Structures are given as C-alpha cells and as structure tokens.
C-alpha cells in the first residue's frame, strides 16, 4: 500500500551563513513557521524543484523535503532531527552562557 | 615546542590563499557545491546540522598560549564565543560563516596553525600522549615521531586520496594514554634488544560500525625505518583498500579480511623492495625536530617546602585537596606535576570551553606551565609542567572560570560526541545524555567512592565518542523515530584494550541515567576491596549486570 502523503516543507542550508533555512513565499527564511507547506505530492515536487533551482543559483545548499505536522497551526517537523534543526541550535543551554552556568 | 620553518610557513600560507580563492569562486557561483565540497573538506570545513563547522588541527594535541588565545579570539570574533575540543585532540567551531573561513585560516596561520587534513580520505592529525615528555616511565617523547609523521603525511601525493580516512597515534610509554590500539596504525616506542629505542607497530584498529582492536604488525622497528615502513604499510592498503563500499574501506577491514600474516607479508615485501633511503627522514632533520621537544628548563624548586605548602593548603581547602588528588599526575622532574583541567563541569557539554576559559588556560600555561598546553583525546586540557608550589595558585585561577572540576577519570569525566544536537550524521543526542548522567552522579564523594570509571557516548554508529572502549559505553541510535541507547560494558582504550560487550536491548532516552546507576550500584555491591569497575567486570562477567538491568523487564 502506498504511504499516505504527509505535509512537507523544503529546507536547506544558506550558502554563505550555513544556517538552516526554509522555503517561504517570500524566499528563504529562518523561521519554519513561515515556510510554504506542500499538501500534496505534486505540490511537494514543485517546492523541491524551486529548492533545486535556488541551489543552482547559489543561494542555498542541499535542499530536501521534510515531513511536518500542522496540529499547532504552524509546521512542526515529525522527526526529532528536523525539529532540532528547525530550532536553530542544540536542545541544551550552550556556550558561553550554558558553559558558564554548568561551571 | 615545534616551530614552523620557512617551508612550513610558506606551505600553510599558500594553502590558505588557495582556499580564499576557492571560497570566493564558490560564493560567486563559479564552483558548484559538488565541486566545492571536496575542497572545503580538505580544509576542515563541514556543513553540519545548523551551520558550517570548522575543524582545526592541533598536532599531537600540543598548543602554545598564543595559539590558545588565537582560538579564543576566533571563538569571539567569528563564532559564538566557545569551541569544542574533540576526541582527536582537535578543536571544532560550530558556527562559522563560509565567507569568514578564509579570514579565520589567516588568523590561524599567523600562529602556525591550520585546518589542513582534518577531514577527507587522507592521513589525519597524528595524535599522542597528553603526558608526552612528562611521564616518568616514558622511553622517549612521542611527539618527535608524531611531528615526523605530520611532515611526511602533509600533502603526501600518494596518500591524499586514500580509500578512506587514516588515523595514526603514537605513545612513548607502556601505559597507553593515546588509545593506539583503536587507530588505523598505532605506534609504541619500545626498547630493542640492544636497549635502543625503536617502534612496535600495530595496525587495523578502529571503531565505527565494525570495531577492531589493532594487531601487531612489527614487534620492533628500528627508528630510522619509520617512514619507509609507514609508506609500505599505506601503499599496501592503498592498493587493496576498497573504494566501492565506504563501510569496508578502512584498513581494519583489509587487515581482517587478508589476515594480519598476509598483510604483514605484503608490507614486508614492499618495504624490502622500495628505495628506503629516499623516504627515510635525514638524521639531521630528526635531530632538528627532537630539539624542539626537549624538556623545557624547569627551575629547580625547594621540593620539600613546596610539598609542605601544598599540604597546608590542601588541609585548609578540601576541594583543593580533592582536585590535587584527582587531577594532577607525577612529573619526571621532582617538584613538578602535570595538571588536568577538566572540561567536564557537572551538567556541561563535554569538551566545550568558552573564549574566556581558553584565555585563562593560556595565561596559566604561560605563567605556570612553561608555556605549554595539551589537548587530550578525553576532551580535557593538560598543563604539563606545573611546579608543586604553584598548584594552589593554578587551582584558584582555574576555579575563577569554572575549570576546577575534580573529576579526571571519574564517572562524570564523560567523553561524548556532538551527537544529534550538532552533527548531520548523528541519529541520537549524546551531550544531553552525558549531562543527565553527570547530574545524577554529581556528588564528589560518591564519584570518588566509585573510583576510575570511563563512560563514553556516541550519537551514532560512527563512534566518534569511542563508546566501544568505554568501561561503560553508550550508543544512541534511531529506532523507528525514537532515540534508543545500547549499553556496552568492559571496554578499554589503554594497553589492555578491549571492546565492550552489549548488555542487551536498548533503553529510552529518559531511562539512561537510571540504567547507568544500576550498573554502578551492581559494581559497588559486588566489588572486592580496591577493585576497579573494569577489573570487577572482567572477573564477574556480564551476568550480574544483565540481571540488574533486565530482571524487571
């Protein structure tokens, strides 16, 4: 049986800065809440194609689709890896404040 | 310490300029990512989960204060104010922007540092004993050999595109603090039949998805033959090593499949055939290198007065006494100690240091450790030459920046890879697991009662956290979208190296601290007087630990 389609967004890394970015109507954004959501496989193909074009134009690196849930209204990645990535940093308090606090 | 000669300086400067041009072309769209990726990797630039990551080489883990200060400067100017010291004695910055990397490399070159060969399928940074030149039982400073290998292996035309990465470690002591048995090639300086130092050469060690303890390739190799012999060993690997399957491309697989006898036969045949004189290092070059690693002139001390003063301060300050006991080690010069600065504060990220902490360590090294620092594969920092009489002052300076945790070798001195919080390859978190375990065992007295115990955590099968050789190893994997942690017991990275045995089915993220506590409690209940965890496990076997972990499941 074919896997049921789940909503998806396109993500990549910004070429110059390296940080995680998401494809929105206004271009590439840091906040996944603004990302365009594909609700069908066809929409997902089109979104990914836009990502591939952006990579060819040297805006981003390595675009790919991420499955998301929409229960809260905004897209939230289903996989932990992608949730951590969308948060933009580690799941713990990191340096220098985090290191100073631990010390 | 080694200083660049004109060749070294020109080589690094040229390479830095090359990479500046390559980055410029990439940003201008003249190079695709596919074209650029191998170039950036050759210069230590990865693209990780959140950002680019820059891995900087610290040859054999040795740093000068000005170099440590430059790392602090880079952390503040181009990163987020901290760096991460790794299990290969390097440092990684987690947040550099690609456009800034050429400037960072220029800054590094100004203090004789670089990021060359910290990635890619080449010979990586040669690692060594953090107590090199210090340990009383040492035959010879292994960094002389490591530096020779660094020079030989840098941009070696034959070995720049190997089937897979290649890691070499060197120790000059019988007691192995460099984990040589889990390296592609491990080198131990030993004495030959006539008493002269030479090398015992091991091959085919490694961790990852197929872990192996290295096997002996040569029981004794005369020193002058080192580079030709390494060249022969690498040549045989390069010839046979598989390039069709990266999971079978490391030398450990070749040695395993050929058998050590056949591999050794082919190496010896190549060694006999080759023009050894053309490859061997000239004696005068070896002497030039050796001179850089001569023991620094350490002023003679009134050792009795120093010891008395240290004892007096220890009596007044129990925390200093605990640190003295746990974090300092004997030095070959009477009146001196090697100090381990723990980068494992309770609840912290193992191996992380802020720019300010780096500066404090640099200052202390400058004033109290003959201008030397060492990064350890256990993700700590060693101040190798501290006068006993200065220990209290050093402790206070470190304490002011939270660098005084007295836990070297104890249950909270945990090795952890960056894991899913940073790494694009990881399948589970490792640093938060380390933090939870450290919090569980935070009480200093309890840690000391448990005694020597190494916990090593990897967030994926690639085993950057060396979990296979932890007394307790923890491997995080993804199981149908859920983090699951497999536990191994009885691993050992030293001269008595062994791979840990898996306890059984894995545990959930939240269960891990409790699981480790049950393992430790079982050990405490069953140990004989003075028996370490590792010794107890080797005597008792898996059964009582398995019973403790799974009886209720």
TrEMBL record, chain A:
<protein>
    <submittedName>
        <fullName>DUF2849 domain-containing protein</fullName>
    </submittedName>
</protein>
<dbReference type="InterPro" id="IPR021270">
    <property type="entry name" value="DUF2849"/>
</dbReference>
<dbReference type="Pfam" id="PF11011">
    <property type="entry name" value="DUF2849"/>
</dbReference>
Automatic annotation (TrEMBL), chain B:
<feature type="domain" description="Nitrite/Sulfite reductase ferredoxin-like">
    <location>
        <begin position="52"/>
        <end position="110"/>
    </location>
</feature>
<dbReference type="InterPro" id="IPR006067">
    <property type="entry name" value="NO2/SO3_Rdtase_4Fe4S_dom"/>
</dbReference>
<keyword id="KW-0411">Iron-sulfur</keyword>
<dbReference type="Pfam" id="PF01077">
    <property type="entry name" value="NIR_SIR"/>
</dbReference>
<dbReference type="InterPro" id="IPR051329">
    <property type="entry name" value="NIR_SIR_4Fe-4S"/>
</dbReference>
<dbReference type="InterPro" id="IPR005117">
    <property type="entry name" value="NiRdtase/SiRdtase_haem-b_fer"/>
</dbReference>
<feature type="domain" description="Nitrite/Sulfite reductase ferredoxin-like">
    <location>
        <begin position="347"/>
        <end position="400"/>
    </location>
</feature>
<keyword id="KW-0349">Heme</keyword>
<feature type="domain" description="Nitrite/sulphite reductase 4Fe-4S">
    <location>
        <begin position="119"/>
        <end position="272"/>
    </location>
</feature>
<dbReference type="InterPro" id="IPR036136">
    <property type="entry name" value="Nit/Sulf_reduc_fer-like_dom_sf"/>
</dbReference>
<keyword id="KW-0560">Oxidoreductase</keyword>
<keyword id="KW-0479">Metal-binding</keyword>
<keyword id="KW-0408">Iron</keyword>
<dbReference type="InterPro" id="IPR045854">
    <property type="entry name" value="NO2/SO3_Rdtase_4Fe4S_sf"/>
</dbReference>
<feature type="domain" description="Nitrite/sulphite reductase 4Fe-4S">
    <location>
        <begin position="412"/>
        <end position="549"/>
    </location>
</feature>
<protein>
    <submittedName>
        <fullName>Nitrite/sulfite reductase</fullName>
    </submittedName>
</protein>
<dbReference type="Pfam" id="PF03460">
    <property type="entry name" value="NIR_SIR_ferr"/>
</dbReference>
<keyword id="KW-0004">4Fe-4S</keyword>
């Amino acid at each position: 049986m074919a896997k049921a389609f789940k909503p998806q967004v396109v993500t990549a890394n910004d070429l110059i800065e390296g940080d995680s970015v998401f494809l929105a109507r206004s271009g590439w954004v840091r906040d996944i809440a603004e990302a365009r959501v594909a609700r069908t496989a066809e929409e997902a193909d089109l979104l990914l194609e836009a990502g591939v074009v952006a990579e060819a134009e040297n805006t981003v690196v390595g675009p790919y689709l991420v499955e998301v849930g929409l229960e809260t209204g905004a897209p939230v990645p289903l996989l932990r890896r992608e949730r951590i990535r969308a948060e933009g940093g580690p799941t713990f308090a990191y340096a220098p404040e985090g290191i100073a606090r631990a010390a | 310490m080694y200083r660049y000669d004109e060749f070294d300086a020109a080589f690094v400067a040229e390479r830095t300029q090359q990479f500046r041009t390559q980055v410029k072309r990439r940003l201008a769209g003249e190079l695709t990512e596919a074209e650029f990726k191998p170039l950036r990797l050759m210069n230590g630039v990865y693209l990780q989960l959140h950002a680019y990551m820059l891995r900087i080489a610290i040859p054999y883990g040795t740093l000068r204060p000005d170099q440590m200060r430059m790392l602090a400067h880079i952390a503040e100017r181009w990163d987020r104010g901290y760096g991460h010291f790794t299990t290969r004695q390097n440092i990684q910055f987690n947040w550099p922007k690609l456009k800034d990397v050429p400037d960072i490399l220029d800054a590094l070159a100004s203090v004789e540092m670089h990021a060359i060969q910290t990635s890619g399928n080449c010979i990586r940074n040669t690692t060594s004993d953090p107590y090199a030149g210090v340990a009383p039982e040492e035959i010879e400073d292994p960094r002389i050999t490591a530096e020779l290998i660094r020079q030989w292996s840098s941009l070696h035309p034959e070995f720049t595109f190997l089937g897979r990465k290649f890691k070499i470690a060197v120790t000059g002591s019988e007691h192995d603090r460099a984990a040589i048995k889990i390296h592609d090639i491990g080198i131990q300086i030993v004495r030959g039949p006539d008493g002269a130092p030479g090398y015992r050469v091991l091959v085919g060690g490694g961790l990852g998805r197929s872990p192996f303890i290295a096997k002996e390739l040569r029981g004794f190799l005369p020193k002058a033959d080192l580079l030709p012999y390494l060249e022969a060993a690498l040549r045989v690997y390069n010839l046979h090593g598989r390039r069709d399957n990266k999971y079978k491309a490391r030398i450990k697989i070749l040695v395993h499949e050929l058998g050590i006898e056949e591999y050794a036969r082919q190496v010896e045949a190549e060694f006999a055939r080759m023009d050894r004189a053309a490859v061997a290092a000239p004696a005068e070059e070896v002497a030039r290198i050796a001179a850089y690693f001569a023991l620094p002139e350490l002023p003679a001390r009134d050792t009795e007065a120093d010891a008395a003063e240290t004892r007096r301060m220890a009596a007044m300050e129990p925390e200093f006494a605990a640190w003295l006991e746990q974090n300092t080690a004997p030095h070959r010069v009477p009146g001196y100690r090697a100090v381990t600065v723990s980068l494992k504060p309770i609840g912290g990220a193992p191996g992380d240091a802020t720019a300010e902490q780096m500066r404090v360590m640099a200052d202390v090294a400058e004033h109290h450790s003959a201008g030397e620092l060492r990064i350890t594969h256990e993700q700590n920092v060693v101040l190798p030459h501290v006068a006993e009489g200065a220990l209290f002052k050093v402790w206070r300076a470190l304490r002011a920046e939270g660098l005084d945790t007295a836990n070297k070798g104890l249950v909270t001195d945990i090795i952890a890879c960056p894991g899913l919080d940073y790494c694009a390859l990881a399948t589970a978190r490792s640093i938060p697991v380390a933090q939870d375990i450290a919090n569980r065992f935070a009480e200093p007295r309890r840690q000391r009662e448990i005694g020597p115990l190494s916990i090593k955590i990897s967030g994926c099968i690639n085993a950057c956290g060396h979990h296979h050789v932890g007394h307790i190893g923890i491997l995080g994997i993804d199981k149908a979208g859920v983090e699951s942690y497999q536990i191994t017991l009885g691993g050992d990275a030293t001269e008595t190296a062994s791979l840990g045995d898996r306890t059984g089915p894995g545990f959930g993220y939240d269960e891990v601290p409790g699981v480790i506590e049950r393992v430790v409690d079982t050990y405490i209940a069953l140990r004989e007087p003075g028996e370490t965890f590792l010794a107890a496990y080797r005597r008792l076997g898996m059964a009582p630990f398995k019973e403790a972990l799974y009886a209720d499941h």
